[in-house]
Amino acid sequence: MKLLPLLISLFLFAEFSHAEVYKWIDQNGKIQFSDKKPELIKAEELKLKVNTYTNVTFDNSVFDVGPKVVMYSTDWCHYCKKARQYFKKNNIAYTEYDIDKNKKAKRRYKKMGATGVPVILVGKKRMNGFNKKGFERIYN
What we know:
Layout: H1 3-16, E1 21-25, E2 31-34, E3 44-46, E4 69-73, H2 78-89, E5 95-98, H3 103-111, E6 119-122, E7 125-128, H4 132-139
Parallel strand pairs: 4-5
Antiparallel strand pairs: 1-2, 1-3, 4-6, 6-7
C-alpha cells in the first residue's frame, strides 16, 4: 500500500512539471544540450512533449507479495527439497542460498549459529528445518 501514494505523486508531478531544454553547437562542432540557456551562443529551445498516462488502473495485488522468505539449504537435504516443493506449489517467492556452493552464504549461516538445514527466514522470524504448519505459522 505504500507504493500507491508514491505512484500517484509521480503521475501528478509529471503532469505539472515543465522544463526548458536548449540545444546548440559548440565551438568544436558538437551538439550540446542543457537546461540552462548559454549566454554567448545562439541556442534553440526544444519543445518537449511529456507523455503522461491518465486514468490508469492496475491490479495492486501484484505488489502484495508477502514477507521476504530466505532459505539456507543444500542439494542433498530432504527437508530442503520439501520446502522448495511447498514454496513452488503455493507460489511463494523465496531466495535460496546453498551453503555447500556459496562461501558467503556459509559464513552468514555460521554467524547465525545454525547447525542444520534448512534454515528458513521469514522477515525477522527463523525456522530450523521444515514442516508445513511451522512454516505457515511464521509466514502468516
